[in-house]
Amino acid sequence: MTIRKNFDHLNLPLADALGVVGEWWTPLVVVSIAGGSHRFEEIQNGLTIARNILTDRLTTLVDNEVVEKRQYSSKPKRYEYHLTKKGEAVLPAFELLAAWGAKWVTPHKNR
User: Fold this and answer.
1) Per the domain annotation, does 3 fall within a domain?
2) What pLDDT digit, counting tens, does each position of 44-67 carry?
């Protein structure tokens, strides 16, 4: 059995959206950037995410124009990450998901 790595075979807007922002860690990265963590180390330390995973998630977000990279140092090259309008537009969906989690998941975690 082959495990699918994307939803490209589906013609559904939700599947398309999840292909961009539905990977493990991605919503937390977006919310972290929205909250003011713009540098790689800030995002990594705030989430305690592995560097390779964060690099992969940021690359996907930049490639899909959810996040933009802005160089702030040339030697060595360093970048900040900022949400685009497209990235800002997904925040209400994450806020709704967080509210759902607060109501239906978090209270039942330690049962």
Assistant:
1) no
2) 999 999 999 999 999 999 999 999
